[in-house]
Amino acid sequence: MSSTVSTAPKKGSIDPATVIPTHRDLFYGGEWHAPASGRYVPTLNPGLNRQVGEAADADAADVDAAVKAAHAAYPAWRRMKPMERAAIMRRAATVLRDHAEELALIDAINTGNPVSEMISDANIAAASLDYFAGVVMELKGSTIPMGDDRLNYTLREPLGVVARIVAYNHPFMFVGAKIAAPLAAGNTVVMKSAEPAPLSGIRLAELIGPIFPPGVLNILSGGKECGQALTVHPLVKKITLIGSVPTGKAIMRSAADSLKPVLLELGGKNALIGFPDADVKALTDGLVRGMNFTWAGQSCGSTSRAFIHASIYDQVVEGAARLTCERHKPGMATDWSTTMGCVINQTQYDKIMKYILSGKEEGARLVIGGKHPDTEGLADGFFIEPTIFADVNADMTIAREEIFGPVLSMFKWEDEDELFEMVNRVELGLTASIWTRDLVTAHRAAQRVEAGYVWINDTSKHFLGAPFGGYKQSGIGREECFEELLEFSQIKNVNVNLAP
Ligand SMILES: NC(=O)c1ccc[n+]([C@@H]2O[C@H](COP(=O)([O-])OP(=O)(O)OC[C@H]3O[C@@H](n4cnc5c(N)ncnc54)[C@H](O)[C@@H]3O)[C@@H](O)[C@H]2O)c1
Where is the active site (predicted)? Predict the structure, then answer.
């Protein structure tokens, strides 16, 4: 099959009841394996709070077997010509595109995120495979001048077995996209999917596992025990996480024993800043988009703290409330017209509801939402109405902690120095969104904000090729760009004596 011809079905043509993958096991060494413990855990459709299947729960014995399979496959994969590796990755990208709707439906069922949005996740994963396949030849070394009697050069070599551990909010996008850079650089990969939503990772293994030589791509479902075993396994040469700050710290601590390098993409408590000269209509639109209400705010990059200048504050609060209610109505994720899903499980639902209660108790003004929707058919699912609090101050709990839910906090500001003191007070620094018509204000604000990824007069979008990652405790390292490829290589220097 050509690597570029797509045979994808037409949107809306797949029956959601048919998409759940047939396997439940662990994929490593090119084959399916039952978990050593025989343990399978139920997985839910959070929109219905109903079980949709079960998945193997990998433990340390499974991790050991998967890592050994990846280690055995490493020498041949590493020696394979880069363009041949790239061709295999492009074939995998095409298969993902062809199955985008099916994969989107699996994630919709298993996470409650609307299918209309999840379809782009499958395409983003495919684009990442294509992107890193396209830059394999750029993994270059350099020559260092040493005089006529010496040749000194560097080589960029892969690391070996790389373990990647991911979060639940975009299960397929993370499992599919995050294998790309390490594989392109010549490493083999053991991927651990997020335990609340393992099904699309299993389907990915069914679809593209066999495209790679056995052991090159290995996919495990499991929880903390599986993740921990990966962090301490001696044959794992780098460990990466997309997840929360506490998990990032735990991984760094346990990786320290074997001095494994880490790449961490962690939480956010991101600021959107509205200056007095901002285009109010565009800002309000950006404010609502930036919250990612579609997937119930469960996004590390959500701009969940909005700092709006006093001169436009009331207008923006009123506009954001109206626009949010017009655009986002909670509904079933498998319905193509749904504009907002639910949160992942009871634990997350309870946590968010607790934050909402604290907002009310600590004196913030609830503008919209704050409760489970009354809509018929949603009673059993983990739905929360899009919620906006106004008149939040920087000391409140909802102002300081990542909620990872559909809760927007709005602050009023007048003095720019005080503004940045409040914006930068939190220990997280992933994204920021700045709204102004003035170039000088925009670039000054971009410099003052302590965040790794800044939008000016925009929000929410990612750009493949542009480094994404956090300042402060939001992470270590950068992804979605050429630097991510370099993260999975190491430098060797070679010095040749030309006058022996
Ligand atoms: N920066 C980013 O790119 C990005 C993207 C998406 C989500 N996130 C963050 O992820 C969090 C939400 O996701 P979550 O609830 O799945 O996060 P989490 O930290 O609970 O879990 C993330 C992954 O780590 C695993 N894990 C948990 N404890 C572990 C341990 N001790 N050792 C090894 N692995 C362990 C989990 O099984 C899961 O696969 C939020 O904080 C969010 O901001 C960050």
Answer: 265
- The alpha carbon torsion through 438, 391, 474, 427 (nearest 10 deg) reads 110
- Per DSSP, the three-state class of 270 is coil
Q: How far is the CA of 246 from the centre of ligand 1 (A)?
A: 9
192 lines ligand 1 (CB under 6 A): yes
pTM: 0.96
Cβ(324) – ligand 1 distance below 6 Å: no
Q: Name the catalytic one among 265, 385, 450, 479.
A: 265
pLDDT at 3 over 50: no
Q: Are strands 262-265 and 365-368 parallel, antiparallel or unpaired?
A: unpaired
Kindly tell me the number of DSSP H helices and DSSP E strands found in the chain: 16, 22
Nearest ligand 1 atom, CA 251: 32
How many other CB atoms sit within 10 Å of the CB of residue 493? 11
**Beta carbon of 224 within 6 Å of any ligand 1 atom:** yes
Domain 271-465 = CATH 3.40.309.10: yes
- Would you list the domain boundaries of the chain? 16-266+475-493, 271-465
Distance, in Å, from the CA atom of 470 to the CA atom of 94, rounded to the nearest integer, reads: 31
* Annotated catalytic residue 265: yes
* DSSP helix/strand/coil, 295: helix
Which residue's CA is minimally distant from atom 43 of ligand 1? Answer: 267
pLDDT at residue 378, rounded to an integer: 97
Q: Which ligand 1 atom lies nearest to the CA of residue 247? A: 19
Backbone phi and psi for residue 410, each to the nearest 5 degrees, phi listed first:
-115, 135
Q: How far is the CA of 158 from the centre of ligand 1 (A)?
A: 25
**Is any atom of ligand 1 closer than 6 Å to the C-beta of 268?**
yes
Query: Which ligand 1 atom is at minimum distance from the Cα of 246?
Result: 19
> What DSSP element (H or E) covers 431?
strand 431-435
Report how far ligand 1's centroid is from the alpha carbon of 289 (Å): 23
Report whether pLDDT(233) > 90: yes
CATH 3.30.379.10 at 16-266+475-493, yes or no: no
Classify each residue of 153-175 as buried b or exposed e, where b means 16 or more C-beta atoms within 10 Å of its C-beta: eeebbbbbbbbbbbbbbbbbbbb
Do the interacting molecules here have an ipTM over 0.85? yes
Alpha carbon 205 to its chain's center: 19
